[in-house]
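Why does residue order matter? Because the sequence determines the fold. Keep that principle in mind as you read this record.
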Amino acid sequence: MGASISSTTSIREKYDEGSNSSSSRTSLGDIPESCISSILMNLDPLDICKLARVNHAFHRASSTDFVWESKLPSCYNFLVNKVLGQENLSTMTKKNIYTKLCQRNLLDDGTKEVLLDKCSGQVCLFMSSKSLKITGIEDRRYWIYIPTEESRFKNVAYLQQMWWVEVVGELEFEFPVGSYSITFRLQLGKSSKRLGRRVCNVDQVHGWDIKPVRFQLSTSDGQRSISECYLNGPGEWVYYHVGDFMVVKPNEPIKIKFSLAQIDCTHTKGGLCIDSAIICPTEFRERLKTT
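Structure:
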């Protein structure tokens, strides 16, 4: 389905050469825009943008509302209302809406971010540590916020030492029909820059090798999952899978609650950085390891 600029140019030249020797003198420019639009609907957004450069007819066809509405998720009205406000929906073309939703859109005073994947139009949601309910976060003896360029939200929550560790995320949101994964982005150790190089202090890391962390997920339609694992990889950001859930009803918000907890009070825990929680289509989970 993919089309490169060179391939579209060669197709145009082929047709133009044929038109010089043909009495009908037909070319790509003679194809009705409605036919071009119907073809473009079957391509992904990046290919549509490439083919828009073929000629004026392709450019006009690639901007029509019904082409881009087919690429928008079913919940795009909900997203536009969240990001832009409902009054902007009627004044924007579907292509502009798609472009805007593919950008980083901050919600809830900048503590959450939603965007569309540029290639597929699928919804991804990021929740910062400040959008999560963290036990003891208000007491600086236990937790502090650290500014860092390693977070998309520019800060992370850092645990110095505590007996009871529990982090809870709650959300009501509208997702397109499909399967979604929830993941925590965590690091053991406190990273910083020294002489232009990244260093990670792991002196306060302790307690995570004694008992595993429990991850839980529940939804308003009765889906549940529980898993446990030990935190590892000091000095590196690691993505810990909480669980998966299915959205089966289009255009209907779903309530989600998820958590991580290590509440065995026989020992203290410390040295944990919490960056964010990520909700994305299940097939995107492997991509997180490379971001």
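The CA atoms of residues 19 and 25 lie 4 Å apart.
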